[in-house]
């Protein structure tokens, strides 16, 4: 016999499932963590949460032995071994192994940018991009080169820097076969082949090879200074100037 929810008419196979479902309407969370007092609507969710405190990871990958706190994380991880991609974009048919990755990809079509910087109101399509951006305000450099100890604000910048030590040039120009160290350098190089692709400033008509340089230039017209020092609140038009300024507080040598 099916048990129907009196709020949304959804049917459940058993009474216990209906009881759990009703909490989604009432907001009731009867299961509380004894360590941090966080509450949950289901006992299983509490069990998974407790492992955050205990460090327990009972779910092990049978391929590479990496362990996980919850079974759903293990299932997602297994797809990196099988290559399965069940999530397909309905706009361009590109496939992904995770639903979250598909949702992020869809924003490249919609232009949606739900992650906003509370300091300068810049918006981003992904949370990781916002976290990287926030370091331009704080001057934080968490990624250190193990060869020369230079520090960087993002993992991508560190990876690009490491190529200066290895000499590897993995990105090849399809026009002249020249090899470049990173994808950004390749994009800039390709513009030397594409005549007339330079971006034009609508104020003074000065031309720039990429949108980043054009945006920085436009600030000289608008006076916009989106990069703020967290110590003294002085503002700057570009992140490089902020980085140099932050050293005046930390006494860091360039």
Distance between the termini: 73 Å
What CATH architecture label of one domain applies? 2-Layer Sandwich
Helix and strand content put the structural class at alpha+beta
Strand content: 5-15%
Largest sheet: 2 strands, antiparallel
Radius of gyration from the alpha-carbon trace, in angstroms:
25 Å
* CATH top level class name of one domain: Alpha Beta
The number of E-state strands comes to: 18
| Count of alpha/pi helices | 9
Order of SSEs: EEHEEHEEHEEHEEHEEHEEHEEHEEH
Low-confidence stretches: none
- Widest beta sheet: strand line-up: 1-2
Shape: extended
CATH-defined topology of one domain: Double Stranded RNA Binding Domain
Mean pLDDT over the residues: 82
The CATH superfamily of one domain is identified as Classic Zinc Finger
Helix content: 40-55%
